[in-house]
Specification:
The chain is an all-alpha fold and 212 residues long. Helix content is 79%, strand content 0%. α1 packs across α3 and α3 runs antiparallel to α4. The longest helix is centred in the last third of the chain and has 34 residues.
């Protein structure tokens, strides 16, 4: 097993513990009429709202922005466990979830990074675009669009960092926060490599399968 695979196993184990804890909490309490896809669409609405407030109306009230963003990342934290514990995971939901994540994150990244950390923002944006392109290409060839553990970990890191940056704003954030954001870039690359590896492995298995 490679170091890359070992890291993935460790992260998957941590994610499994999180899912089990949320499964225990959410299963008896969650209303049946609220589906996981509704939660993801709600996150899309929040991301668009942040975009409009920050860049159209110029509203920078810390309480409003932090509250909207925090609700958005909390919805991302629970929609996957809700889908699994209620048996409502769908392929469309697997596509919608990372799209909703990007719509939520990108306005905050642009707002907090573009002025003073353009390269960091551009790298983050480039990796998001690359990951989205590879996932869409894999999906077009019949592979699952479900997020892998590296993409999930990247989203958690970025979400936590941006919450702290927004709370501190407009005071200069700690440099360590930007270091963590730089760390999320290789995680995004790992996510893309993992997706490519899955496609390559399955294609190889099909090619090596005995022909009738």
């Amino acid at each position: 097993m490679t170091s890359f695979e070992r890291l993935g196993k460790i992260l998957e184990k941590i994610d499994s513990w999180r899912n089990q804890a949320l499964y225990f909490i959410l299963k008896p309490l969650w209303p049946e009429q609220i589906t996981p896809n509704m939660i993801s669409w709600f996150r899309v609405v929040l991301g668009v709202l942040l975009l409009v407030l920050l860049f159209w109306f110029g509203i920078e009230d810390k309480l409003i922005i932090v509250t909207i963003f925090f609700i958005g990342i909390f919805s991302d934290f629970i929609d996957g466990p809700v889908a699994r514990c209620k048996g409502k995971a769908t392929e469309f939901g697997a596509i919608l979830d990372p799209v909703a994540d990007r719509i939520l994150i990108i306005p905050i990244a642009a707002y907090s990074l573009f002025k003073y950390h353009k390269w960091l923002f551009l790298f983050l944006l480039l990796m998001e675009m690359l990951e989205f392109f590879v996932t869409a290409l894999a999906k077009s060839k019949g592979f699952s669009a479900k997020a892998n553990i590296f993409g999930k970990t990247k989203m958690v890191l970025e979400s936590l960092v941006f919450v702290v940056i927004l709370i501190i704003w407009p005071a200069p954030p700690f440099q360590s926060l930007f270091a963590i954001l730089w760390l999320s870039i290789p995680l995004s690359l790992f996510s893309t490599m993992h997706r490519i590896g899955e496609v390559y492995k399955l294609n190889s298995n099909h090619s090596n399968a005995p022909q009738n």
